Amino acid sequence: ILFIWHAGVVKSYQKYIEALAEFDDLDITLLVPESWTEGSREIKAYLPEQAKYKVIVGKTIGPKDPLIAIYPHLPHYLKEVQPDLIHFFEEPWQNLAAYLLFWKKIYAPHSKLIFQTFQNIVEQYPLNWRLVQNWSFNKSEAAIANAEEMKEVLLHWGYKKPIHVIYPGVETALFNPVDSRMLRNRLSIREFCIGYF
């Protein structure tokens, strides 16, 4: 499996890949950029010292914007990895989707393709993005929507293949219940308070 995921530079995000890599019959490679702006700060790609998956740190060209940036050496990575499955953890209408579909046809024609979307609002895309999205829809085997609203967006645009709704996980080592009295004291909260994330 070749995962292509710009936000995979973040250490905690890679727990998603780490969990899948626990299955011994999966050979996983993650392609991430050298660095990315995530959560308003520049983050260098996390490289695990020991892991059951490989990480390729790819150079990107273009602004650090997932709508525009591409990996110029993507053909080489496809040829090197020869994936059975490409998990495109990006939107199906991005520039990188078109770039991937072009080179996949040459260097990994037998690879199956799925994409994962967070798009939860129906927007009127420019024509070139709609064309890329239609191409992605046509060449993919299935889609992962991160919530029912995202599935509805795919259905709105006419996606006819299987859509699997898989909600993002929560890193329970970081996000877990605590004694609210201790937290209220630490944050000097005296009044009724609603917390959310």
Detailed description of the structure:
It is a single chain. This protein has helices spanning 15-21, 74-81, 95-107, 127-139, 148-156, 180-186, and strands at 2-4, 29-33, 35-38, 41-44, 54-58, 85-88, 112-117, 142-145, 163-165. The chain is an alpha/beta fold and 197 residues long. The strands form 2 sheets. A 7-stranded parallel β-sheet has the order 5-2-1-6-7-8-9. Helix 2 packs across helix 3 (95-107) and helix 3 runs parallel beside helix 4 (127-139). The longest helix has 13 residues, at 95-107. The radius of gyration is 19 Å and the shape is globular. The relative contact order is 0.11.
Provide a compact summary of the structure.
With 197 residues, the chain is α/β, with parallel strands linked by helices. It is built from six helices and nine strands. The strands form two sheets. The chain has a seven-stranded parallel beta sheet with strand order 5-2-1-6-7-8-9. Strands 3-4 form a two-stranded antiparallel sheet.
List keywords for this structure.
6 helices; alpha/beta; 9 strands; single chain; seven-stranded parallel sheet
Radius of gyration: 19 Å
User: Could you estimate the helical fraction of the residues in percent?
Assistant: 25-40%
Shape: globular
Give the spatial strand order of the biggest sheet: 5-2-1-6-7-8-9
Order of helices and strands: EHEEEEHEHEHEHEH
Strand content: 15-25%
Query: What is the distance, rounded to the nearest whole angstrom, between the alpha carbons of the first and last residues?
Result: 31 Å
Question: Total number of helical segments?
Answer: 6
Poorly predicted sequence stretches spanning 5 or more consecutive residues: none
* Major beta sheet summary: 7 strands, parallel
Structural class: alpha/beta
Would you tell me the overall average pLDDT? 93
User: How many beta-strand runs?
Assistant: 9
